[in-house]
Known about the structure:
- Helix content is 46%, strand content 17%.
- It has 847 residues and is of the alpha+beta class.
- Among the domains are: 31-172, YVTN repeat-like/Quinoprotein amine dehydrogenase (Methylamine Dehydrogenase, Chain H, 7 Propeller); 174-263, Thrombin, subunit H (Beta Barrel).
- Strand 29 (316-321) and strand 30 form a beta hairpin.
- Helix 5 (346-358) packs antiparallel against helix 6 (363-370) and helix 5 crosses helix 8.
- Residues 8-417 form the Vps16 N-terminal domain.
Amino acid sequence: MAAVSVAAEWQLLHNRYYRKPELYAMRWAIRSGVGVDLRRHRVACAPFGGPIAAIRDDSKIVQLHAESARRRLRVFSSAGGLLASTPWDRPGGRLVGMAWSDAHVLACIVQDGTVYRYDVRTEPVGAQFSMGKECFEESVAECVFWGGGVVCRTEENKLFCVPDLSEPRPCRLADAGLSEAPRCMAVIEPQYTMSGNVEVLLGVAAEDGVLMVDEEGVQRFGTGIGRVTKMAVSGNGRMLAAFTDDGRLLVITTDFSRIMFEYNCETTLPPEQMAWCGMDSVLLYWEESLLMVGPHGDPVHYQYDEPIVLISECDGVRILSNSSMELLQRVPDSTVSIFQIGSTEPAALLYDALEHFDRRSAKADENLRLIRSSLPEAVEACIDAAGHEYDTSRQRTLLRAASYGQAFCSQFQRDHFQEMCKTLRVLNAVRDPEIGIPLSIQQYKLLTPSVLIGRLVNAHQHLLALRISEHLNMNPEVVIMHWACAKIAASSASNDADLLDILLDKLKLCKGISYAAIAAHADNSGRRKLAAMLVDHEPRSSKQVPLLLSIGEDETTFMKASESGDTDLVYLVLFHVWQKKSPLEFLGMIHAKPLVRDLFITYARCYKHEFLKDFFLSISQLHDVAYLLLKESWEIGNNLSASKGSGSPLQGPRIRVIEQAHKLFSETKEHAFESKAAEEHAKLLKVQHELEVSTKQAIFVDSSISDTICTCIVLGNHRAATRVKQDFKVSEKRWYWLKSSALATIRDWDALEKFSKEKRPPTGFKPFVEACINAGEKAEALKYIPKLTDPREKAEAFDRIGMAREAADAAAEAKDGELLSRFKLSFPQNVAATLDAIRDRFPFQGV
């Protein structure tokens, strides 16, 4: 009897059954003051059981009854529950069209081409935008939406398109050259076209067939089918249902290669609405009459005494009226196999066996024996049928039948049964009239659970979204974060401490949640203190520190960045505070923070010398200022390439900088050496500057004292060399080395000899020997080698100028066998024999 009652609700279209269960009695029909009369309102219904937007139609003259003359945009659930409303006071003329995008953003287009966008809470989404100057000048006459975009037609029959409403970039399509408005317009979505661009189909009043318009051009298709007055494109973009002016319904492939079927509707009046019911049939609606036409057999008629709106779904059509929401869909094969009158399918026998089992009838066992070999298929069919049912008692009965069959089917995979139970719990929860999302199982699978949870969150159904997330083992972070942000926005009267406790109690349910993101929302909502309290619970410094900066908690930010040990974060805070604070405040802030201070000093040494000097002065570290001055003087010296002439004007500032460094070093006893060095450096630069002026040669500055003396001697300025020696207290030994080397460089051997005879050299004659040998003058070196007092030095000198015998004699005099052995290795064979003879004559140590 149950099967008979179920099948009695079906209608047969050729060999396929269709059903039209009522999903909801519309709640707006029950509650006074919020009712929606579809005759007087313009409505936009989102697919996948989405919300309904309604606004009084300003193109009709209607009686206001008790309502206000001011229009309101209202958003309802599919069950008719009011979700939100807002006054409609937008300029731009009459509302031409509105529709929901895939992201549940309501787009409303007015006559001047302005597009306004709202969410399900009627809050504006993004800035309004215009379809373009021409739409503004010519006015929008008609628009057609699809999942993510819209096409508009102006009063001058020009077409404009926005492919993506989330990133609006209006573009004009090719000019169709129409002199009068088309009778109908439809679009093929970009995802179903070869070009990847939207294609607009126009039914022209005076011409046969259909015009296809895109960005590239205009093409005519379907010549011979007649004048089209109404069109609807199938959900997969492959078929077009077209109603002609002679009353025929044609289903054509969208490439117009063939007519799939044709039906004579016996009326030439175009339908008010036309929609696809899945991929199997087409619905046509005239006032009080709904006709469902399939490829074969007689159509099915439905009568309505109130206006309706057809809402295409992937597996059927939702029918909205003033009083109810229905779903017209093809009956699934699994359901037909069970409930069809007289069915002997295994699933029907299994369902019947459960009834006999409940009545304690032995016939239950007979039914099971009959389907023993097909029991897994019967169980699967019962599970599938349960998923397609909206009635919870029927779901329960079908699942019980499946469970009953499983008990006698050991090889059946039970995962499918468990998954179906989980899925039905979710679907039944969102189908509740308080929620009002009448998803079918096919729609749920296409939509995916994550998208469903996102839509529940946007509708502020946070508790249900959280329960579903937990039920499906999904991360509840998105739900809890949205709830927290909504709670902050709705709790303007609560104090920060109490609100923080409420938030933390829920936020702790999700590990790893971003407290920083919620704190940022609190800051944007004007709750800066609450934001600071929230961000303190954020464990990730990379998210915590930037937010603390934005809310102005500089001291806390420095502490958190330092504790993280991340120098990049410390520098981020450092630069941010540096730009915001005055120099005095900034320097005082970083002084007591060792890591911050050290990083600042490291950076400032490279790029901000003056600022770093101010910092060191503020903390009385004068020696560090002096070091910076020395570095600055060096940089000034490097800039001499800009002015290479003698008497460079840059030397004066450089000398003054070094003198300042000397004064700062002299302030502390610990830096006496640095003070003396800076003093002498400045003194040397002055001398070198004077020498460059007198010689007109820029060769002295930045050379050492030794090089300065040598250069003076090379230039013949012995008086200047002597003055440098005296001024800088150059020792006699060093003086002899420098002067002998310089005289050898200019090969003034007479002067060198004279210099050696002035007085007994304090260094001996070794500097003279070295100078001559280095200059390659063996003859000159022989003047001084015999005067060397150290036999070993004398032997090595003779060796360097190639005088082996003399070197051997000197080595023998020094009684150095090791030296003699080394000479033997470097001298020729005949000389080596002589060395052996010398070694045999003298007893050497170490040989």
